[in-house]
Amino acid sequence: MITAGPFNLHGLAALVTGAGRGLGAAIAAELAAAGAKTFILSRNQAELDDLAQRIAADGGQAQAIVCDITDAGAVQSALDGIPRLDILVNNAGGNIPADFIDVTPEQLDSLLLLNVRSVFLTAQAGARKIMASGKGGSIVNISSQMGHVGAARRSVYCMTKHAVEGLTKAMALELAAHNIRVNTVAPTFVLTPMTEAFFKEESFRDWVMQRLPMGRLLPAQEVAQAVRYLASPAASMVTGTSLKLDGGWTAQ
C-alpha cells in the first residue's frame, strides 16, 4: 500500500458502484491500495465479500454494500449510511449490442435506466454527500471511447455514453464552486465478464483489433490507475475532461 506522494488517498472515503467484478473490482482494489476507505457497491453479496477479503488481505479497507444501482432510493439510503464521502466512482453500466433497427423499447429503456438515469441520480446523491463535508472531492464517471465516436450495433450504448460525457462537463462547471472535480475515464475494449462473451466471436475480435492502433486490449488495472490519478491530489486542477484510454481508437 502506498501512503505517500501525490497519488496518496489515505484518510479519504471512496464509493465504487458496480464493484463486484470486472472494472469495478479493479478500481476498488486500486483505491484501497492507495489508502482510501473503500465502499464497494453492487447487487451480488458473494462477489462483494470476496473482493472485500482480497482487499483486506492486501492491507486495505473495504466495506460491502448490497444495492441495486437503478433504485435511487436504495442508493440514497446507502449513502446516508456512510459517515463521509470524498470520491465517487460511477462505474456500473452495461451494453446490449443490436442493430439499430432491431433495438427494442425494452432494451432502450434498460440501458437508459442503467447507463444514464442511475449515473445522474447516483452522482447527484454523491455530490450532496461530498458537499456535506465542505472539503471537496472527486467524481469519476466511467464512460467509454464510444462516448466520443459511433459504432455499428452500439447505437444505444453510444448514445448513453455521449450523455455521460455531456453530464460530466455540466457537473464540473456547477460543482467547481464546491471544490468537487468531475471527470470521465473513457476506456477502449477491456476483457471483463461483460465483454468476454463478445470476444468469443472471432469476427468481433478481428473488428476490434483492426481498429486499435496499439493492437491490444486494455488491462483493467490501467483503467483503475487512471481513476486513482483523477481521484488524487495530482489531478487537483483536472475537471470537466475525459481521460481516453483508447489505444488511439478515437484519433482516427
UniProtKB/TrEMBL annotation:
GO biological-process terms attached to the record: glucose metabolic process; xylulose metabolic process
Q: State the UniProt keywords alphabetically.
A: NADP
PROSITE patterns the UniProt entry points to: ADH_SHORT
Q: From the UniProt record, which GO molecular function terms apply?
A: carbonyl reductase (NADPH) activity; L-xylulose reductase (NADPH) activity
Q: Per its UniProt record, what SUPFAM superfamilies does this chain match? A: NAD(P)-binding Rossmann-fold domains
Transmembrane ranges, per UniProt, are: none
Cross-referenced NCBIfam families: PRK07231.1 (NF005559)
Describe the family membership recorded for this protein in Swiss-Prot or TrEMBL. Answer: Belongs to the short-chain dehydrogenases/reductases (SDR) family.
- Assembly and oligomerization: Homotetramer.
Protein name per its UniProtKB record: NAD(P)-dependent dehydrogenase (Short-subunit alcohol dehydrogenase family)
User: What does the organism's lineage look like at the top?
Assistant: Bacteria, Pseudomonadati, Pseudomonadota, Betaproteobacteria, Burkholderiales
